Amino acid sequence: MSHTPQSPARHLRRLLELLAAGAPAEELGTVAAEARRNGATAEDLAEVEQATEAALRVHSTLRQHRRREAELTALFDTAGDLAALRDLDAVLRSIVRRARMLLGTDTAYLTLPDEEAGDTFMRVTDGSVSELFQNLRLQLGEGLGGLVAQTARPYATPDYRTDDRFLHTGSIDAGVLDEGLVAILGVPLLLGSGSGGQVIGALFAADRTPRTFAPDEVALLCSLADHAAIAIDTAKAMADARIALAELAEANAVIGEHSAAIQRAEESHDRLTDLVLRGGDVSDVADAVAGLLKGDVAVHDGSGRPLTAVGAHGGAASGDAGGVPGGGEDGAGAAEAADLVAAAKSSRAAARAVFRDGRWVCAMLAGQELLGCLVLYGRPDLDGPDQRLFERSSVVTSLLLLLRRSVAETENRVRGDLITDLLTAPDRDPAGLVARGRRLGFDLDRPHILLAARTGGEARDRLADAAVQYLFGGGGVSAEHEGAVVLLLPPGGAGPGEAARLAAGQLGQLVGSPVTVAGAGPAAGPRAIADAHTEGVRCLRALRVLGRAGHGASVAELGFLGVLLGDHHDVDGFVTTALGPLLEYDAQRGTQLVRTLRAYFDCGGSLTRAKEDLHVHVNTVVQRLDRVQALLGPGWNTPEQALELQLALRLHLLSGA
């Protein structure tokens, strides 16, 4: 079968149509074959083949242009991502995904160095299916990535497993094998250019079959790597900028707080200084500190006794401790005072305020002498500036206490001369003594409790100063007289015996040695005060004879010795003190406990003789004595108390009751 030869123009038109349609190169090659089958002449066939070669060149050029266009589009998109950089990981994932797409590889990945661990790690992967490969870590200088990092140049291998240009390691080879990679192209992530460029990572594209990467593919991956380096550097710069801004803001806040603290400290200093210059008292300083620190403030002396306490808004929590120093202090109060003294000593040792039991305590010092402590409640979160303000306030309070003590010591010396004159010659000029006392701010016509204190050894020289400290803030006065220290206290809640015991404990702490204290009074007027002093001296002597040195008591508390030593010989008071519970029981119930007790003592403690004397059964005597013990206490039959009971029974019998 023969074919009619066709014009070459028809075949040329066909080539143009295929080019316009974007047909693959294989279809372009079929045009010459078709012309040959159709019986084209040799001349026409040569022309068609030449046209086909030209069409193939045009097709290749168009393909390169389209590929370059796609690459440029990807680079422009990447640049756009960088311009709107918000999430570094998202940008890096986009770069790796585009590298895989443009190079047509099975996978792509990016590694970064870990400065702390000293190796590199997989930061982003795309197309990876192996968990072992995704978690692979490479030591510097190992594998293809190590070669790229060392030389700062791109490297490609058509078959990773057989390439000996780089160092193979078991862990890297295992990861590559698990992923199934064969051909790998790696390019460096460079910051800067030339020899001074810094490698901050590497970008890779890899296939699971052997492949030779073309130069334009290497160039494309290098361009994407440059963008990745810019993204990483930009993100780091932004992170550094954010950190710098945060540090700047923090520094600005610290400067602002410091400035405010300085201003507040200046204002506080001015306020406290003004208080001192205007003659303010310790309570005024405490009130100011409470207002400045928004807490409750208390001032205690060196033995832990409260001097003043105020609330956060200026209202007094408790006034100055008046009356008998330490008066009314129970066991809980003594424990509280001891805790405060211990905290104040810790503050003195640390040279700063300390936080103890939910409160701040700062020692008030004169040199190393502990004058007392300043206490702040309700501010557990006390910060640096406020803590320093609190500590400065303790210094101001210390100055005020020193000033008050100096004034008190001067006044006490003048008043002490008055007390000495009063005790030496109370009847010489009683009215003059009273008038003199009023000029000194001390009213002798008011009832006062008199204490006579004595100690031995070297502590004797310290007792007078200790008495001044003990009376500080309490309104009393002291003086040395005839080898003892005499204290006159305004009346308070404590009687003379209790006041003596409190003074014995506090003075003993202040002088560091046992102090014996006798109490008398209350007494008003020069003569009564002098008589109270005479009674107190006799009581001191009795305490020493009884072996009760270091204790405190009044004459009324010494039993029958008090009756003998007292000025008024209060027989009825002694009988009531000794037998009062029995007398009251007999009066209310018509019993004979007092008669039974007298018979028991008269019979020498014999129950048999006592029951005959009383004409009752012996069990009745036993029952009555059991009731006596219940009323008088288990020690009623001790020699000392038995003696007092027998004396009281004798005086009761003589009184005709």
Strand order of the largest sheet: 3-2-1-6-5-4
Q: What shape does the CA trace take? A: elongated
Query: What is the gyration radius calculated from CA atoms?
Result: 54 Å
* Distance linking N and C termini: 174 Å
Biggest sheet character? 6 strands, antiparallel
- Based on the structure, what is the oligomeric state of the protein chains? single chain
Overall SS class: alpha+beta
How helical, in percent, are the residues?
55-70%
Could you tell me the number of beta strands?
Answer: 17
Number of helical elements: 21
- Which percent band covers the strand fraction? 15-25%
Averaged pLDDT: 77
Q: What ranges have pLDDT less than 50 throughout 5 or more consecutive residues?
A: 312-329
Would you give an account of this structure?
- It is a single chain.
- With 657 residues, the protein is of the alpha+beta class.
- It contains 21 helices and 17 strands.
- The strands form three sheets. Strands 3-2-1-6-5-4 form a six-stranded antiparallel β-sheet, sandwiched between helices.
- β5 and β6 form a beta hairpin.
- It starts with 7 loop residues before the first helix and ends with a helix.
Provide keyphrases for this structure.
single chain, alpha+beta, six-stranded antiparallel beta sheet
How is this structure best summarized?
Helix content is 57%, strand content 16%. By secondary structure, it is α+β, with helices and mostly antiparallel strands.
